Amino acid sequence: MRKIAVLTSGGDAPGMNAAIRSAVRKAIYENIEVYIVSHGFNGLIHNNIKRADLGDVGDIIHRGGTALYSARSEEFKTLAGRQKAADNLKALGIEGLIVIGGDGSYAGADKLQELGINTVGVPATIDNDIFGTDVTIGYDTALNTIVDMIDRIRDTATSHERTFIIEVMGRDSGELALNAGLAAGAETIFIPERNTKMSDVAERIQAGLDRGKKHSLIVVAEGVMSAEYCSTELAKYIKIETRISVLGHIQRGGKPSAGDRVLGSRLGAYAVELLLLGRSGVGAGVSRNELTATEFSYVHVQNKQYDNSIYQLSKELSI
Ligand code: ATP
Questions:
Q1: What is the ipTM of this complex?
Q2: Is 155 in the active site?
């Protein structure tokens, strides 16, 4: 393989830049021509593809978001769109593509290989919901951001003796809510993977009140319900004053943690190695600190399991 390209797709995640930089520089180190594509799959369709040099990825490792911009492309979901994308790559002689993104981006990369382009995925999403890797790029930074925000809310909750309901990201995955809840000492955590009864939550809050506890923190993943709905439902079981806080997009941005930069650097370079080994249709990952490659076909059908012991532990610690 003599020419490869790199793009970012789907939601941005801190550490994507480290992965871009690593893929580009590793390719140059291996004497391969490398191209950067801006605006994700849309950029492939519209030929936003340019040859990259070492300097093109300079001064980005410490920045949040993605220097290549990201996009959600409806056109790429059509065969005609993907054909245009593949033709544009082939016209430049590019045989391999590294797709840095979430599971949707992996689905796109999987379909592109049917058109003769070798593709390797690099898992980047704050949700940490991709099978085949213990952790995704962006998760560590987002988790730390959320815990920092909850710590601030805790100051107010304590000072004003109130219950706060904090809504965090996670449509289908409770990873962020669960681990942020544990790390921030939340009394209750709602995650999509588990059914938590509001009557039980009210009972626990009442038990806390009975022993003199005047404030509490509830973390709810957006996929379960909104913080507002949670507050309305809770009010049906217990008469306490609650305040809500929806963390929103502050969870996604920001300077990547050292952990995300290391992970991005390792996986970006590994994706290049996989392409050079002739691999295609796989997602790069880490498992027990070893680099791994998992077939897309497997990634699509497997759900990453949440760790029930963490849920149990957070319950035991917030009695
Ligand atoms: P995040 O987890 O942060 O949302 P993601 O990569 O899952 O990231 P998506 O919006 O689901 O984000 O997917 C990114 C892009 O991948 C889509 O806009 C689309 O262009 C492409 N894509 C997703 N699913 C498919 C599919 N089934 N076939 C072809 N392309 C797809």
A1: 0.93
A2: no
